[in-house]
Design brief:
GO cellular component, one term: cytosol
GO molecular function, one term: oxidoreductase activity, acting on paired donors, with incorporation or reduction of molecular oxygen
Structural class: alpha/beta
Strand content: 5-15%
Organism: Streptomyces termitum
InterPro entries: Bact_Lucif_Oxidored, LLM_FMN-dep_put, Luciferase-like_dom, Luciferase-like_sf
Helix content: 40-55%
Number of strands: 13
Shape: globular
Protein name: Oxidoreductase
Length: 358
């Protein structure tokens, strides 16, 4: 099973000191976090894509290309690639280039994001979000698999005899996840193509995530890609760890209370009971994460959000030490012991994809 972290790249004031990092500091710190993830033995680092303050990751492939040059084993991914407002041609080119630079250690997650104004900034209509996601990905899928493409759709100019360059590494496109919090149409899209489905399991109760994953599994089997159990599922999650739970709660509370997304709303205790947010000891994080399997089944990738809400770099790196040393080794063993034969252990990596195509 793959374990890793994802970032949304927010530039947020530390509520305990009042200090806000510069954009330069936040970008450099994100690189340091990725390098630490590899150092402690995590599998995946993923970045979001945003084009508005207070976020900095507007160019995921630039960031991931730099990290690729400084790592050897880390899978480089996105927690959102905006399939609705990016040109599919540019996505095809940029991520194929990254795939070459990283020697295949790349996959990506298609998403619509959660920032409404981004649509008109890039000449699109938010009311067309789902149709844009469907049509743009259909084109991207074609661009990566056909050397010469003729295309006509609703949302971009037609293509005639077009070749996207560079071609994917070894002729095999990066593995694609389709990420969603709330949209069954995206689960259907992932199932149709036999791609992965990533339920960003950070805001909604488990009953909602269970329904979304079940729909994806059923439709994956319907389209003939394998059994429901063989569908490729990933989950998001949020954690804050200290050696004992009392210290974790005390230290994280001011960050939670002032977080850009959920601050000044439900209490930390209410939010933790209603969503997968886990603030506590390593053992509590292990037990809570293992419980996800009870309602989504055996899955292949677990990503944690650990660097948001103004947490200083030192604290984030300490979180990664605890994840790498005390949490993930136990989760690997326990999930492996529970996984039935015939169920994929991980999302497909480049060598496996190349072998499958051979």
């Amino acid at each position: 099973m793959q374990f890793g972290i994802f970032t949304v790249g927010d530039v947020t004031a530390d509520p305990t000191t009042g200090r806000t990092p510069t954009e330069h500091e936040r970008i450099k710190n994100t690189v340091a976090i990725a390098l630490k993830a590899e150092e402690v033995g995590l599998d995946v680092f993923a970045t979001g894509e945003h084009h508005n303050p207070p976020f900095v990751p507007s160019s995921p492939t630039t960031l991931l290309g730099h990290i690729a040059a400084r790592t050897e084993n880390l899978i480089l991914s996105t927690s959102t690639t905006l399939i609705t407002t990016n040109d599919p041609v540019k996505i095809a080119e940029d991520y194929a280039t990254l795939q070459h630079l990283a020697d295949g250690r790349v996959d990506l997650m298609m998403g619509r994001g959660n920032t409404g104004p981004v649509y008109p900034w890039f000449g699109q209509d938010i009311r067309q979000g789902i149709p844009l996601a469907i049509e743009n990905y259909a084109l991207l899928h074609k661009l990566w698999r056909e050397d010469v493409v003729d295309w006509e759709g609703k949302f971009r100019s037609a293509l005639q005899g077009f070749t996207s360059t560079p071609r994917p590494l070894d002729g095999v496109p990066p593995f694609v996840w389709h990420g969603s919090i709330r949209s069954p149409e995206i689960a259907e899209q992932a199932a149709y193509y036999g791609d992965g489905f990533f339920a960003n399991h950070i805001f909604w109760p488990k009953q909602h995530t269970e329904k979304m994953v079940r729909l994806y599994r059923q439709r994956y089997a319907h389209y003939g890609h394998g059994t429901e159990e063989q569908a490729i599922v990933g989950l998001g999650g949020q954690v804050f760890l200290r050696k004992n739970s009392q210290d974790a709660v005390r230290e994280f509370r001011p960050y939670f209370d002032n977080a850009p997304v959920y601050g000044h709303g439900p209490s930390l205790e209410e939010f933790s009971s209603q969503t997968p947010l886990t603030v506590g000891s390593p053992q509590e994080v292990i037990e809570r994460t293992l419980s996800f399997r009870d309602y989504v089944g055996d899955y292949q990738r677990q990503l944690f959000l650990v660097d948001h809400a103004g947490l200083p770099l030192k604290t984030v790196l300490e979180q990664l030490d605890l994840l790498g040393e005390e949490v993930v080794p136990v989760l690997r063993k326990e999930f492996a012991n529970l996984r039935p034969a015939g169920v994929p252990e991980t999302a497909p990596l480049h060598p496996a994809l190349v072998k499958k195509e051979a």
